[in-house]
Amino acid sequence: MVKDTLDSDAHLRLTCRKKGTDGKQLELKKIELGPFGYVVADISCLNKLIDLRLIVLTEVYLKLTELREEIKECIEGIVKSACIEESAKGGLHWPLGDSARNSFKVVTSMHYNVTTIVAESWNVKFQRANRAEFETSSGRVTNEVNVKLKKITKHLRDQRPWEEDKIMNILEDILKWFWTEL
Question: How many CB atoms lie within 10 A of CB 72?
Fold first, then answer.
């Protein structure tokens, strides 16, 4: 996550992948503005020893060509100077002074190992997330499950009116699957 220090609301999530034969360099894959969360609900499932967090959010993807040249150079410079180091918190580190360019600075680094299950109406990602939060000098490794509900996403993109019963049925179906499989 990169923050613009001149605009406290501007957070860019840079998604990169390993590049090169040695796998020690990063290549910028996509840039997201936000994400913007609309609903957050924490659910404790005591009999399952699982806590769930339901988040409804939107993401705005930006193209490098849409950015001003100086912003593009800053972002590319931050990505190019990153060093992949699996043992470091967040899986990445930057040489001293290279985690910031002009008004942009790295505030969070995340490295994921992901396994994805694809179904007709949803995707499930099982991921081991290694995070480093530079502003608080903290880090953590977590096991996470992210579910993308394709039918609900399509429903929202098509800007159809909310059909609460249908959406609740989709959510109930996915939760039933989790209860039986996990």
Answer: 15
DSSP 8-state symbol, 46: G
3-state secondary structure 96-112: CCCCEECCEEECEEEEE
Segment 39-56 mean pLDDT: 73
Helices (H), the chain: 69-81, 150-157, 164-181
Give the tens place of pLDDT for each residue, 127-170: 998 999 988 889 888 888 888 887 777 777 776 676 777 777 77
Q: Write out pLDDT tens, residues 36-45.
A: 666 777 777 7
Farthest CA pair distance, the chain: 54
Q: What angle do CA 8, 14, 18 make, to 5 degrees?
A: 155
Which residues are paired to 111 by β-bridges?
130
Distance CA 136, CA 43 (A): 27
Higher pLDDT, 33 or 116: 116
Nearest to 54 by CA among 181, 182, 167, 180: 167
> Hey, what are 102's tokens?
């002009």
